[in-house]
Amino acid sequence: MNKSGFPIVYYRMPDEKNAWVIQSEQDAVEIDSLMNVPGKTGFILHPFGIDSSCKCLFIRANRVVKLTIEEVRSNTLTWKINASSAGNSFNKLKEEYCKNVADAVEKIRSGELQKVVLSRVKTIKNNASNPLKVFYKLCAKYPDAFVSLVYIPGNILWVTATPELLVSTHKNEIKTVSIAGTKPLENMEEWDEKEKMEQLVVTDYINETLKKYCSNITVSGPQEVIAGNVKHLKTSFSAELNNDLWNLVSALHPTPAVCGIPMNEATQFIKQTEDYNRKYYTGFLGPCNMDGKTDLFVNLRCAEVLTDAVNLYIGGGITKDSIPEKEWEETELKSKTLLFAFEENEKE
Length: 348
Fold this sequence. Notes:
Layout: E1 8-12, E2 18-23, E3 29-31, E4 42-46, E5 56-60, E6 63-68, H1 69-73, H2 94-109, E7 115-125, H3 131-141, E8 146-152, E9 156-162, E10 165-170, E11 173-184, H4 193-213, E12 214-227, E13 230-241, H5 245-252, E14 260-261, H6 263-273, E15 284-288, E16 293-298, E17 302-305, E18 309-318, H7 324-347
Antiparallel strand pairs: 1-2, 1-8, 2-6, 3-5, 4-5, 4-15, 7-14, 7-18, 8-9, 9-17, 10-11, 10-16, 11-13, 12-13, 15-16, 17-18
Helix pairs in contact: 2-7, 3-7, 4-5
């Protein structure tokens, strides 16, 4: 379907049985500000932070095709990425990650930070000769996730299965959620104070942000939700938008769920501590102006597919009660969300 050499996007909305294919007849547009997002039908891929090496991209939808998930399974994506993982393995050793978590806890307890999100990359061998099989497996296993595959020929192949909505809008009605706190699916114990506080920080931030741009705000939750092999605490919001959508998005991103509080101090700590560029991990993505709707999702549970490797991006929220060993275990657990799809691909 991508013989033209232009960008192509496959995505499946949560709880839907069909997938959509966005085919473009032009190169992706680089955007330096959300105020410059085209008012056209398309798909946006926004990084954690825009810099010279990672641009915000808008893929114009010249053609939109609806497919069943089974039809996707029978398709083949011909792809090529002009980059490999040679000399660029980001696998962070457990000892190093735990030290970074301990440093973060120390800064939080000293009052320099309230919360910070630390991440790492797990690099595995690329066995995905046809990435659409990975997309199909993720759709099948996670029916309530937003699943996507974004391909910019030669440059980007990004796969996502995220549980987290950033904002959804139809006319002037918006929805968003606060998701934070993580534990294994089989853990039946009550949520502890660390996870409750992590969720409350994100909820308060979103609520205060919405008050600046919206009216008639309704809040429900928190409630427990399942996301693959883990579960989270989730609070839902609905409101009437009184401003431009992209002003709200600019104010929301990055939320404490992917960055921290205070935002500037947390961002600085992340840059000093993480020895890699997050690129599109913890950014956001989704279809824009599709039948009058825009649906944007936080880019979590995602992977960057290279010629010979796959970079799985994983992280967790650090608070004063975080235990380094448990934070490492949480990232390992989250990596399994996508890991199975690439491992099973090898057997086919």
